[in-house]
Amino acid sequence: MDYHLVFIELKGINVKLRAAYEKNLSDYKNTIPKMFHCNAFVILSNGVESKIGSISSKYEHFHDWKRISEEDEGIVSLDTIIKGTCEKSRLLDLFENFHLV
């Protein structure tokens, strides 16, 4: 069995971020729900906007990830969200300490 802790939906810069949620993520949840059984979080991005949420979050509950570490200046970007959540030790920390099963 494959486990997918992080699901990332990337859209083109000309596509509104909400479309990634409403069209793609919603469709995936309906057609391949097994892919999300062990999901820790979902990242949606169009290269300009990037948001993070859980598989059960409504779009309004997806939020920016602004810092890689507490000391950093807040910058909202795809780079920040990936480095701040998907770096190995951070991903394991998020999964261990902030994920309800």
Which terms summarize this structure?
101 residues; alpha+beta; tt1808, chain A; three-stranded mixed sheet; 3 strands
Task: Note down, in words, how this protein is organized.
It is a single chain. The chain has 101 residues and is of the alpha+beta class. It has one domain: tt1808, chain A, CATH 3.90.1570.50. Helices cover 35% and strands 14% of the residues. It has three helices and three strands; from the N terminus they run βαββαα. It has a three-stranded mixed beta sheet, with helices on both faces. Strand 2 (41-45) and strand 3 form a beta hairpin. 17% of the residues are buried. The mean pLDDT is 89.
Task: Write a brief structural summary.
It contains 3 helices and 3 strands.
Number of strands: 3
For the record, the CATH architecture stands as Alpha-Beta Complex
Radius of gyration, whole Å: 13 Å
Remind me, CATH topology?
tt1808, chain A
Number of domains: 1
- Average of per-residue pLDDT values: 89
CATH structural class: Alpha Beta
Strand arrangement across the biggest beta sheet: 1-2-3
Structural class: alpha+beta
Distance between the termini: 18 Å
Share of helix, binned? 25-40%
Poorly predicted sequence stretches spanning 5 or more consecutive residues: none
